[in-house]
């Protein structure tokens, strides 16, 4: 009988703990819905300004997405918003480092999840294309391939690893070699027809 009482008390404590920890209140859900509605409204306004992109709206959207991420850090929607915020930072001059910070939050907070692979892949693109730091890009893509081998971006990262040279000036040489390769002449002439 005494074992049953202890077991019952332990179960009640476990249930109380699980219900009390991490559960969202209806107020939290309302706050989340309000923030999401604000984000969607700003996003719609921003999309109407494309391709020029109203940078003031982009900054406002980044701030709202960061606010959501801080309020609901473990929500996977936070990961999506931070990845979008990173992309939005790329619309602004000299904000690549801010974009990388957003991505770092995603791939540390959501390690082991698909969003982390997405963040690592995009970080590699920023390092390679925007910052001209191919060594860093290679590190990011190698991590995607090693840690997320079944993710769809792993194949793309693997392909990028094969063609990315640690010396960005060699890219021009690679293009010239490709253009001068006789095998590619037939492809080029077919495209010009």
Describe the structure.
By secondary structure, the protein is mainly alpha-helical. It has a single domain (30-177), classed as Tetratricopeptide repeat domain (Serine Threonine Protein Phosphatase 5, Tetratricopeptide repeat), CATH 1.25.40.10. The chain contains 10 helices and no strands. The protein is globular. The protein starts with a helix and ends with a helix. The model is unreliable at 1-23 and 188-193 (pLDDT under 50). This is Outer membrane lipoprotein BamD-like domain-containing protein. Pfam families: TPR_6 (PF13174). Keywords: Signal.
Concise summary:
With 193 residues, this protein is mostly helical. Helix content is 79%, strand content 0%. The chain has ten helices and no strands.
Question: What structural keywords apply?
Answer:
signal, 10 helices, Serine Threonine Protein Phosphatase 5, Tetratricopeptide repeat, TPR-like_helical_dom_sf, TPR_rpt, 193 residues, Outer membrane lipoprotein BamD-like domain-containing protein, mainly alpha
Give the integer mean of the pLDDT values.
Answer: 82
Considering the protein shown, what is the CATH homologous superfamily?
Answer: Tetratricopeptide repeat domain
Helix content: over 70%
* Strand tally: 0
From N to C, what is the helix and strand string? HHHHHHHHHH
Largest sheet: none
Structural class: mainly alpha
Shape by Cα distribution:
globular
By CATH reckoning, the class would read Mainly Alpha
Low-confidence stretches: 1-23, 188-193
Count of structural domains: 1
Our measurement of the CA-to-CA distance between the termini, rounded to an integer number of angstroms, reads: 90 Å
The CATH architecture can be given as: Alpha Horseshoe
Number of helices: 10
- Strand residue content: under 5%
Radius of gyration using CA atoms only: 24 Å
CATH topology: Serine Threonine Protein Phosphatase 5, Tetratricopeptide repeat
């Amino acid at each position: 009988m005494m074992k049953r009482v202890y077991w019952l008390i332990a179960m009640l404590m476990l249930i109380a703990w699980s219900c009390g920890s991490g559960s969202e209140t209806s107020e939290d859900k309302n706050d989340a819905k309000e923030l999401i509605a604000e984000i969607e409204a700003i996003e719609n306004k921003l999309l109407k300004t494309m391709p020029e992109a109203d940078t003031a709206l982009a900054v406002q959207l980044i701030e709202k997405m960061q606010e959501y991420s801080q309020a609901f850090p473990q929500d996977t929607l936070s990961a999506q918003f931070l990845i979008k915020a990173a992309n939005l930072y790329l619309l602004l001059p000299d904000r690549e480092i801010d974009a990388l910070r957003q991505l770092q939050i995603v791939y540390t907070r959501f390690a082991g999840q698909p969003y982390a692979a997405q963040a690592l892949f995009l970080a590699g693109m920023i390092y390679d294309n925007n910052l001209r730091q191919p060594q860093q890009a290679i590190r990011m893509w190698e991590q995607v391939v090693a840690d997320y081998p079944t993710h769809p971006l792993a194949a793309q990262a693997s392909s990028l690893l094969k063609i990315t040279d640690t010396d960005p000036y060699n890219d021009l040489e690679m293009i010239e070699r490709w253009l001068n390769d006789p095998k590619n002449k037939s492809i080029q002439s077919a495209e010009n027809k």
